[in-house]
From TrEMBL, chains A, B:
UniProt name for this protein: S-formylglutathione hydrolase
Catalysis: reaction(s): S-formylglutathione + H2O = formate + glutathione + H(+)
Record-listed E.C. numbers: 3.1.2.12
Location of the protein in the cell: Cytoplasm
Pfam families: Esterase (PF00756)
Keywords: Cytoplasm, Hydrolase, Serine esterase
Role according to the record: Serine hydrolase involved in the detoxification of formaldehyde.
Keyword Cytoplasm: yes
Length: 291, 291
């Protein structure tokens, strides 16, 4: 363990770079051990590189995107680091936390809980936006956090869009998402999560945690790419609602140079879909990260 | 279920093609249910395509290569189908079959067992070389089995090399392998497997199931590519022995146009290694499959 408290768990060489798993005691998550994966492309051996944060979906860990996303070929070629956080605190010991697959463990929704029952541990927003950059910088790893972008899948797509759109400091240069939960105050997954984590429930969420609500209020130019599949059962069930996001974006004056929402014929919600468009998304961000 | 007994379990669109999981009652595996994954590239919708068989390693199923191999981008671009068999029969109910991770379930070694205890079920050689092509052809799927090649990882690399080198009918045009068990009669994994599955033990194996023994006797030109990582712990432990295979190949007159064995600095035994060189291997086979 280094002085920063960062412990290297494992390291795998891939596409000429290194995928490293770290563990540390996370203050944001109430002192629990937290894992993350960091991919350093070969260019990181000769200087600081920009970073793209990948937020995974419900039930996932820091490993799913790394193992199945097929992100490394393009990240290596473009010289971009990838950060894979976990999706929730682990082992908080809160009653009921492990009862459902779409709430609690594996389902942190990238927010800071205001319900006292969860407020000590469920602070994935702070964990992703503040704590991880700080821990990584303190450890002296060769990342240039002034060049950050963010993307994600499903719940992680919700996370990527909302963290991008709500950051007062413009922390991220761009956001993209695979099959994101785009209007969570209007779908069962979001309603359940917000009622549980937030004292003010769905109403509290609208102001900060709903991409469709947020894009309606943003005046500045944005850089957003979204893909979803027409064969995605969660899309068909109304959990994703990308059309709502698109309409709100257009209504607010964000044209297709700023917000692209692509419907991909026949693709589903799996990593087989994500990996197909992985390279597209990396290149979308690379254009902005390499400026 | 179709008349051939082939049941479609699931289907995922990926890289413009379809990854389909099938189930059927396998005669070769003693009547047990067997699963396999078949990737049909987009070109399969307008005619028969060549096929590349991927054999996975110890503890794996038909899913590991499909989920983590990053094979589909190149297979889609090249118009090559991919077949992912399982690594052993499942649920044969033989005493001791599930005791170890490197023998029995998940560890079929791509041979036909001659030990009566295993001979009814453990016939992965017949399953891969005869039964799966027959089942797929009978179902009318658009595969041209006159254009077949084979590759694999670790135990599956052993399988790919031995099935390629021992086929009297030249069933496969080429073979490649990631970190293959290259001389199994000389390493602990192979010795254990052969003593268990074969009445004649290691001695019986030398004639048919050891790539290093086989390449020494092959006179015809061959097409073989092997990659292994210098950071691979199983390589360091002497389970893989690629140098033995290389020496036997050169001694038998197979030059580097016929047999390439590449040592990859710092890579390990994982799918992070495999995915890095996945595209290389697909293109190696494509050159021969598309003739």
């Amino acid at each position: 363990m280094s002085e920063t408290g960062l412990e290297k768990v494992s390291s795998n060489k891939t596409f000429d770079g290194d995928l490293i798993k770290y563990k540390f005691k996370s203050a944001a998550l109430g002192g629990l051990d937290a894992n993350f994966n960091l991919y350093l492309p070969p260019q990181a051996s000769s200087g600081k590189v920009p970073i793209l944060v990948y937020l995974a979906g419900l039930t996932c860990t820091e490993d799913n995107g790394a193992q199945k996303g097929a992100f490394f070929a393009a990240a290596s070629a473009q010289g971009i680091a990838l950060l894979f956080p976990d999706t929730s605190p682990r082992g908080a010991g809160i009653e009921g936390e492990d009862d459902d697959w779409d709430f609690g463990t594996g389902a942190g929704f990238y927010l800071n809980a205001s319900n006292p029952k969860y407020a000590k541990h469920y602070n994935m927003l702070t964990h992703v936006t503040l704590e991880l950059p700080q821990v990584i910088e303190t450890a002296g790893l060769p990342i240039d956090f002034k060049r950050q972008s963010i993307f994600g899948h499903s719940m992680g797509g919700h996370g990527a869009l909302t963290l991008y759109l709500s950051s007062p400091t413009k922390q991220y240069r761009s956001a993209s998402a695979f099959a994101p939960i785009s209007n969570p105050t209007k779908c069962p997954w979001g309603e359940k999560a917000f009622k549980g984590y937030l004292q003010g429930g769905v109403e509290e969420a609208a102001a900060q945690y709903d991409a469709t609500e947020l894009i309606a209020k943003v005046k500045e130019p944005v850089h957003i790419l979204i893909d979803y599949g027409t064969g995605d059962n969660f899309y068909k069930q109304g959990q994703l609602l990308p059309e709502n996001f698109l309409k709100a974006a257009r209504d607010a004056g964000h044209d297709e140079l700023q917000v692209r929402v692509r419907s991909q014929e026949g693709y589903d919600h799996s990593y087989y879909f994500i990996s197909t468009f992985a390279s597209d998304h990396i290149h979308f961000h690379a254009n902005l990260l390499k400026q």
